[in-house]
Amino acid sequence: MADTWLPIAELVKDVQDGKVKASDLVEKSLAAIKANSDYNAIIAITEDRARERAKQIDERVSKGDKVGRLAGVPFIAKDNFLVFGAESTAASNILKGFTAPYQATAINRLEAEGAICVAKANLDAFAHGSSTENSDFFTTKNAHDKSRVPGGSSGGSATSIALNLAPFALGTDTGGSIRQPASFSGCVGYKPTYGLVSRSGVVAMSSSSDVIGPMTSNVKDTALVLDIMAGRDDLDGTTIERQPDYTELSGDLKGRRIGIVKEYMADGLSDGVRSTIESAIGKLRSAGAEVKEISLPSIGLALAVYYILCPAEVSSNLSRYDGQRYGFSVPDAHDLEASYMKSRGLGFGKEAKRRIIIGTHVLSSGYYDAYYKQAQTVRTKLINEFAAAFKDVEFLVGPVTPTTAFKMGENTDDPLKMYLSDVMTVAANMVGVPAISIPAGDSEGMPVGLQIMAPQRADKELLAIANNAEEVLS
Amino acid sequence: MTKLSREDILKLAHLARIELTEPEIEEYQQELSEILQYVEQLQPVDVTGLKPTNQVSGLTNVMREDEIRDYGYKTSDLLKNVPAKQDDLIIAKRMIG
């Protein structure tokens, strides 16, 4: 594990004041990445571009020019973000060799404030998975125990933060892919309100729930990174209006109305996670929060809703990988259809094909109403139950996952068992609300995350209470 | 419970334009039947009076002027990942036998 980083705001101040060079921060990050390569967190290093950008920032500082709010801060992007300086593969063989013709809006906004992308992190290919074991390249190791998974799909990003490879990383969360690895790896993982951050230039998976968000060592860093990425983008028509200044984290826990999700504390939760979460909630209570149990009767159905809607959307989004315009292509097919069939058959990994075929089934005529439409309607039921709960309480809390990080290989033979590790994270995606995982303690040496959820567009309030909770939990 | 046959898997794979190997066909037949059985728990859920949700943020159509904007993309950059091309054209296999 590398040395810790100062809080991002302090790092940036040092760069702005000329006390620290952006180049030194980039070299520190690159050295940490190389020294920890045995964790398989990183797919590619954007070394040359990072050094060049650091040099430009240092020159501007020495000339007395103004530099941005993230000047010189190295970061690691999950490899499903389009970034210049390396391939963008989404950890899939079908995109091996793909170099981005343009960058993701989120990356452009971070770069405009002086942040420097140093590397691309591993993930389950196309973000399909909960352990990085579905990466077409290699599996990332957990920073706390190399025989365990880091969680997924943003597992490379989570291990990167847990090992201090950079001050922040980016992830994507469609069913829990930021929060679950944050919980397994012991860092902060933030899933914003659906639509708050532009997804232009991020490889699409399931467009009605995909969001992108930061992974950091503390809540204040997350708030700063979110503040720079959030807001409308004319390249992503689903983006919503932002709140002003997410970094203004005011208030305390006194009198805050918090609901424990009753169904998440039921059978199926491991003893270690249960006791860590109960103890964390006890601390919130001691700090003055008004905590009570609250029931969302249909929340247990969220995973089934997700495993209809997600494959359906995947089957549509992944139709673009056809071996003709970019990506892997079988050259000797005898006609166009054979070229599609062979390029996709060989280019996609097992999980991508599994999801495409399920998605094709649930959308096909004769099954559409029974599967897809019913799932969309149960989604409405979930939205209504969350709305009712948020009339009663300001926030919902519970575990992020039923267990701590599992062993590599433990769930690879049974896709359904792997899917079940998302059972406590998917509801937030189905309903579109913001949710965060913050470290709550550990169980037998492995980290446990506390999940906090808030109503849609209450990201600022959620970050503020997460910041308060982080103080009482650490 | 839905049990997918070998023919079902082959038909779906063809609709999705994916060529499967023999072991994949067998594996998917088993696994996808189990996954469908899991998601079928939604079928008895009472949804009387509820409408399906297509998207969650409440946005309706997001309109813009129909005008050309320059985002700085170059044709050569956009075509650099094409597997087979001639000049600015993509070469595809024949469509009609």
Give a verbal description of the structure:
The complex is a heterodimer of chains A (474) and B (97). Helix content of chain A is 38%, strand content 13%. Chain A has 474 residues and is of the alpha/beta class. Chain A has a domain at 8-229: Alpha-Beta Complex (Amidase signature (AS) enzymes). Helices cover 33% and strands 4% of the residues of chain B. Chain B is mainly α and 97 residues long. Chain B is flat, with a radius of gyration of 23 Å. Chain B has 3 helices and 2 strands, in the order αααββ. The longest helix of chain B is centred in the N-terminal third of the chain and has 18 residues, at 22-39. At the A-B interface, α9, α10, α11, α12 and α13 of A face α1 and α2 of B.
Write the topology of this structure.
The complex is a heterodimer of chains A (474) and B (97).
Chain A: H1 8-16, H2 22-35, E1 42-45, H3 47-62, E2 74-78, H4 105-112, E3 116-121, H5 155-162, E4 168-173, H6 179-185, E5 188-191, E6 211-216, H7 219-229, E7 257-261, H8 271-286, E8 290-294, H9 302-317, H10 336-347, H11 350-363, H12 369-392, E9 395-399, H13 415-419, H14 426-431, E10 435-443, E11 446-453, H15 459-473
Parallel strand pairs in A: 2-3, 2-4, 7-8, 7-9
Antiparallel strand pairs in A: 1-3, 4-6, 5-6, 5-10, 9-11, 10-11
Chain B: H1 6-15, H2 22-39, H3 75-78, E1 85-86, E2 89-90
Helix pairs in contact in B: 1-2
Which structural class do the helices and strands of chain B define? mainly alpha
- What proportion of the residues of chain B form beta strands (DSSP E)? under 5%
Spatial strand sequence of the major β-sheet of chain B? 1-2
The count of strands of chain B amounts to: 2
